[in-house]
Amino acid sequence: MSSCTRSAFVEGSREPTLEQAILRWTLRPQIKLLVISSLVIPTTYLVLEFPKHIINHVLAVGGPKMDLFAFKLDQVSLLILLCAGYLGAITLNGTIKYYASTAQGQIAERIVRRLRIAVLRAQAHSPERADGPALISVAISECEPIGYFGGSMLSVPVLQGGTLLTSLAFLFMQDVLMALAAVVMLPVQIAVLPRLQSRINVAVRKRVHATRSLSAALSGTPEFPAAPSSTSRERLRQIEELEAIRLRINEMKARLKSLYNFTSNLTPFFFFTVGGYLVIQNRLSIGALVAALAAYKEINPSLRELFGFLQAWSDARARYEEVTRTINSSKHRELAQP
Prior knowledge:
This protein is mostly helical. The chain has one domain (about 15-330): ABC transporter transmembrane region fold (Up-down Bundle), CATH 1.20.1560. The chain is about 80% helix and about 0% strand. It is built from 10 helices and 2 strands. A two-stranded antiparallel sheet has the order 1-2. A hairpin with a 2-residue loop joins strand 1 (about 65-70) and strand 2. Helix 3 packs parallel to helix 6 (about 155-175), helix 7 runs antiparallel to helix 9 and helix 8 (about 185-220) runs antiparallel to helix 9 (about 230-280). The two termini are about 30 Å apart.
């Protein structure tokens, strides 16, 4: 294991934050991934732009025509040219996303490997392997979500945030009123949904600690020495407490999902109302309306990915704190041995 990995869990040193540890271990591949992810922005714009020109310049009866470098193109030639450009744009966009996803997986596995090596080192130095079950549980269940977040820590804000901003910019370029109609629910989502998410995050941290305590209790670790029936009621209480926390998390997640789906589905109502009116008033072309619809289809998934990213961030922080606490707790007991 590299020196930076060892220093992350050294006795008496200041513990690095989750973000600091991830950047120490994966800075170079993170930068490469950041460059790859940024290429999605121009290709996303092209994917939105080509359908508008296909409808307005080829399919619309009596619509404006296009010339290419002073060459006169007939309708069929122009259709083939624009469709080829559209195919190239979506192919390039999908290829970039594929390589970005592959790079995320490689970074995630590197982080998981570093964390598990640290856990194995702590287990090797644990007195009489007393912490074995708890450390194994940490190595199996807690490290993978941390690695998953680490692989997307820089790329998701660029990839999804860039897609979101590009789509919004494209909408405003078509018509300001229609763009405002498309984002009318966005302030509500930004104001309300993160508050609900923060409550879920608090409950997730409680679940992590409750699961850790129950695992330690059932394993008979030094914090919770095994005992016969005298402690059965305490074990049952821990199980009931964990069940209550999980039920609360499920209820809050269902509330968050329902509110998000409602606000997302309500947006097209305003979108079609304003966009349809502009088309009827000849202030907006059919091609621009179709392209704007495609742009809105990009906004919704990007928002969902960004909200999921925030949830994964909070969850990874809680799990990272649990991993470092377990490793350092094991080292403290080792030093306390006579």
